Amino acid sequence: MATQTIIQTIASGKHTLSLEFFPPKSEKAIEQLEASSRDLAKLNPDFVSITYGAGGSTRHSTFTYAERLKQTHNYKVMPHLTCVGHSKSELSEIIQQYQQAGFKTLMALRGDPQGDAQSFTPHPDGFQYANQLVDFIKSQFPNFEIGVGGYPEKHPEAQSQASDILNLKKKIDVGADFITTQLFYNNDHYYRFVEHCRSAQIHCPIIPGLMIPTQLERVERFCNFCQAELPIALKSALASAHGDPQALHDIAVNWTFEQIKDLLQNGAPGIHLYIMNQSKFMLALAEKLSEANFLVHQ
Ligand code: FAD
Questions:
Q1: CB-CB contact of 238 with 223 (8 Å)
Q2: How far is Cα 96 from Cα 279, in angstroms, rounded to an integer?
Q3: pLDDT 10s digits, 20-78
Q4: Mean pLDDT of 131-153
Q5: Is 167 in the pocket of ligand 1 (CB under 6 A)?
Q6: Does the pLDDT of residue 1 top 60, yes or no?
Q7: Planar angle of CA 122, 123, 124, nearest 5 degrees
Q8: 230 in the Ramachandran plot: left (φ > 0), alpha (ψ -120 to 50) or beta?
C-alpha cells in the first residue's frame, strides 16, 4: 500500500482520483458494496472514503467497512467522522480505534441535524462545529491527516458565502489539511469558491466532489438538499431522455466527463466521486477518462 498521505500525493503533482462509499444496511446493499468495491479496485484510486451515517448510527459499520475496504482491496481509506450525538470521550475512543487499526486520514465533519430537526443540537459534552472536532483531533492525535467539507454554493445554513468561508478557514487554521467539496454541476461555482478561499488565505488543496447525474429525480433531490444549482441544460437533457436508459447513461457519463476535463485543465488537484456504492457508471466514466488520458491509466 502506498504510504504517501493524500496531500503528499497532490503535492507530487499527480491528479488524485477518489471514490466515496457508504456503509451498507441490508444484505442486498452489502453485496452491492462488495461487488462495486471489487470492480472499482482496478481503477486504482488514490484513496476511497466511507461516510458516517446520520446521528452516529454507523459508528461500528463505518469502521467495519473501512477495515474491509482496506484489507480486501488494499484501498487507502479515509473514514468520515461526525460530531452528531457523540461526547468528546466517545469521539476519542472512535479516533483511537482508527489510529490503532492503521488509518492515517479522517474526514472531520459536523454532520446534519438529526431526524426532522431544523437546527443542529450538539451533544452536551460534544462539539457544535467541525472546526472544534478538527482542533480536537489535531491536538489529541496529531499524526492524522484531516479532510474537511467545503461548499462552493454555500452551506445551506450559512447566512452568506463570505461568512461560510470564514468558518471554513477556522477548520484550516486549526490544522485541516485539505477540503473536499459538496457536489456541484456547474463548475463556475467551484472556480469562484476557490478564488474566494484563496482571497481568505485558505491555501490548501480543494478537491471537487462530483456525482454522476444518473437520474433526474435523484439529481433534483440532491440539488434540493444541498441547495446546489441544477443547470437547465442538464435538467432538460435528462428530462428529454426519460425512459431511454442508453441515452440517460450517455448524458450522465458525458456530463461528468466534461466537468472533470474542465476542472483538471483549470487547476483542480484531483476529483472525488460520490458513487453511491455503484460501479456501472463509474466504470463507463473511467473508460472515457482513460481514453482521454485523464486520471485513470488502465
Ligand atoms: P461545519 O464546518 O461545522 O459548518 C456547519 C455550518 O456552521 C455552516 O453553515 C458554517 O458556516 C457554520 N459554522 C461553522 N463553524 C462555525 C463557527 N465556528 N461559528 C459559527 N458558525 C460556524 N454528513 C454526514 O452525516 N456523514 C458524512 O459522512 C458526510 N460526509 C460529507 C462529506 C463531504 C465532502 C461534505 C461536503 C459533506 C458531508 N456530510 C456528511 C454533510 C455534512 O455533515 C453537512 O453538510 C453538515 O450540515 C455540515 O458539516 P460541516 O462539517 O461542513 O460543518
A1: no
A2: 32
A3: 999 999 999 999 999 999 999 999 999 999 999 877 788 899 999 999 999 999 999 99
A4: 98
A5: yes
A6: no
A7: 105
A8: beta
Q: Does 149 contact ligand 1 (Cβ within 6 A)?
A: yes
The separation between CA 98 and the C-alpha centre of its own chain, rounded to angstroms, equals: 19
Residue 61 CA to ligand 1 centre (angstroms) = 21
Burial class (CB in 10 A: 0-12, 13-18, 19+), 99: middle
Q: How many CB atoms lie within 10 A of CB 224?
A: 10
User: Which of 12-26, 107-121, 191-205 is predicted with the least confidence, judged by mean pLDDT?
Assistant: 107-121
- 225 to each of 6, 76, 80, 207, 210, how far by Cα in Å? 29, 29, 20, 21, 15
Is 114 a pocket residue for ligand 1 (Cβ < 6 Å)?
Answer: no
- CB neighbours of residue 7 within 10 Å: 17
> Which ligand 1 atom is the nearest neighbour of the CA of 50?
28
The confidence band for 80, taking pLDDT boundaries of 50, 70 and 90, is very high
Q: Is 31 a catalytic residue?
A: no
Q: How does pLDDT run across 206-244, given as a tens digit for each residue?
A: 999 999 999 999 999 999 999 999 999 999 999 999 999
Mean per-residue pLDDT, 200-207: 98
- Which residue has the least CA distance to atom 28 on ligand 1? 51
Q: Which of 47, 49, 51, 109 to mutate to test the pocket of ligand 1 (most atoms within 8 A of CB)?
A: 109
Residue 54 CB neighbour total at 10 angstroms = 15
The Å distance, Cα 261 to ligand 1 centre, comes to 28
**269 Cβ closer than 6 Å to some ligand 1 atom:** no
Could you give phi then psi for residue 222, rounded to 5 degrees?
Answer: -65, -45
* Full DSSP string of 183-227: E-S-HHHHHHHHHHHHHTT--S-EEEEE-----HHHHHHHHHHHT
Domains annotated on the chain, with CATH: 6-291 (3.20.20.220)
